[in-house]
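ok so heres the complex, two chains, lmk if somethin looks off
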Amino acid sequence: MPDSHAIDQSAAAGAHSAHEEHPAYLRHHFNSTEQQADTANFAMWLFLLTEVMFFGGLFTAYLIYRNWFYQAFVAGSHQLNVIWGTTNTFVLILSSFTMAMGVWCAETGRRRGLVLCLSLTFILGLGFLGIKTIEYSEKIEKHHVPGFHYSLQSFVDPASDPEVYKEYHDKALPLDMARHTELYFSLYFLMTGMHALHMIIGIGILGFMIYRARAGAYTSGHVTFVENFGLYWHFVDIVWIYLFALLYLISRH
Amino acid sequence: MNPNTIVSLPDQSTARIPKDNYITRENGILSWLLTGDHKRIAILYLISLSFFFFIGGALAGLIRLELLTPQADLMATDTYNKVFTMHGVIMIFFFLVPSVPATLGNFFIPMMIGAKDLALPKINLLSWYLYMAGGLLAIYTMATGGVDTGWTFTTPLSTHYVNTNVLTTGLAAFIAGFSSIFTGLNFIVTIHKMRAPGMTWFRLPLFVWAHYAASILMVLATPVVAIAIVLIALERTIGIGIFDPTKGGDPLLFQHLFWFYSHPAVYIMILPGMGVISEVISTFSRKRVFGYTAVAFSSVAIAVFGFFVWAHHMFIMGISNYAVLIFSLLTMLVAVPSAIKIFNWTFTLYKGSITFETPMLYAFGFLGLFTIGGMTGVFLGTSGTDIHLTETYFIVAHFHFVMVGGMLMAFLSGIHFWWPKMTGRMYPEKISQMAAVITFVGFNLTFFPQFILGTLGMPRRYASYPPEFQVLNVFSTAGATILGVGYMLPVLYLLWSLKYGEIAGNNPWQATGLEWQTQSPPLTENFTTMPVMDHEAYDYEWLEKQNQAQQQEEVPHAG
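and the predicted structre for the whole thing:
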């Protein structure tokens, strides 16, 4: 990130005398709108860094257990629906595109365009969660939720699960390895769940932004909020792309 | 000028506290609870931190009282487990981690860099509310049965074997963690983006550098412990198996995640304290800090190395021999930047005009005690001696030498140093010098015997011990009593000074920082005009010229 030099002198000198010329959204402790926008932007990047570390703990656990129990992780990943996963990946990438367009609309002062883009992002986000719900309910039906009567049936006797079996023809896992599929699903639910939580928060904020954008809040110069939310949304998108590769595509290389 | 003191106060018969300042600008409880002013938030933190400190201290008193006799007679052993756990949780998460950054850092970083406020005032206030929520939850937990895992929440004890309030304590630490993340984030952004004209990176006071380094740790390490706590909670509630060996999980993974935060956390705790010491030693030696650049970079080096030493907490936990070797080496490396600091502070004293006001006394305490604490850390980083000493009182003594002898001394040093700036009034010098000496004596009497106890093999975290250890334990408990007096005194005389202390004026210590070039207590916006930095940090000649210029200005008026 570029480190802005300390505020230049002219801005400092004019800080008080030119008070009336400042737009209303300039907070009192900043000298210029550029400084304010720069600061908020930098803060957002730092926040995303903490998010990387937050997910990092889970990725570490994933890395270790996948190395230890590779067969169980492969068998577990075969239970996931790659079609749904791929669809969801496209849904999210598309939503990142509409979000990026939204930022552009805000920067160029297109109020209606902004509302449209945010609404599309909102809908795509909900769509993602909808598909995720379908996937989760499949897991619940098959008792693949760790901690809630977890069932090893599909792994010790793959033929009993014809839908998955006809696609992958997995061999039966020895009981000892089959039990470790529970770890796979723990990580699956943790990582996708944590991701979904970020989506839900994001969708909530989107709703708030749509409401405010209709009144023209972000199209009159003060676009920082939209830009920073855009960063957040892209970050959540990127996390999903990693999750998709790590959780769905283990045996496809 | 009296050579024994540098204190220069205004004429007390005419001096007044400035009418308009950050305390008097607005009134009413809401103007404090909803404030965005970094100085007011610092005061809120100071009050709440002191509250938690005395709760944690009372628990420490109970521990020492129990250990007065070899038998577990004051309380049942499981109560004892809860007491030392809550002592650790409260002292670490609710006192040590936020202590200097949230109070002094919050108050003075914007002033030192010539800004009107932190970059994100609302986030700053949010940090305090998160801190309070976490803290009160911890107190609630304590009141409703407590927790007995030790502050480290070690698995599988915390997930499978204890039946106490692990969840609420974990949640309390989790919430406090976010408070810490936001504080660190705010500091980094502020230091990058809010510096006054001319305030280049290498003109920053070393206090700011130290906070910058600590903030990097807060921002990068804290999220990892947050996720570790989430995993503990899910393990306890639904049994996801990540840390459960019966399901293929690894309890050691928890320790990796936990110490990945909690080792850097000790640098989060100590670095801001080191920043205070840099300011104090320079001011009371009337010299620029020796090797400014080295001290600045050593803070960053501590932060960077600090990330790669965590496994030295696990030498006896069954990690591989190669890991032991590497982490032992890396642990030695982190001693280097700490030593750079100690040496540079000592060289700062060399040929300085040293005076012995209270902040300086505490700073001397810091130098000695932190050196001992740091050196014994090298014992523990060496795997051979660590296997003998770990889980004994040697660890307890080492940690307390660094954290209480180091950090708490630095905190008190800073509080006394900046008290005139925060309140506009001086603390009473004689009694506070006495308190500093009492603290030093009490501290050594409390914790030095624990080094011996640990070397003799007395394990930590037990309510009872073999009778041959009693003599040293009696010393330790007696010391704790003295230490308690040493900590109570500042509360009393500092409160007294709020009303009766001498008027401090702008710059009672003749210090060079920007925060001293404005009125005390400061205005809400800190400076009347945006300061322009045209000299290096700790430039006492510049200050002298300033003073002369001011005097010349005043003479014609007087005439």
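quick notes: DSSP finds ten helices and no strands in chain A. thats all i got rn
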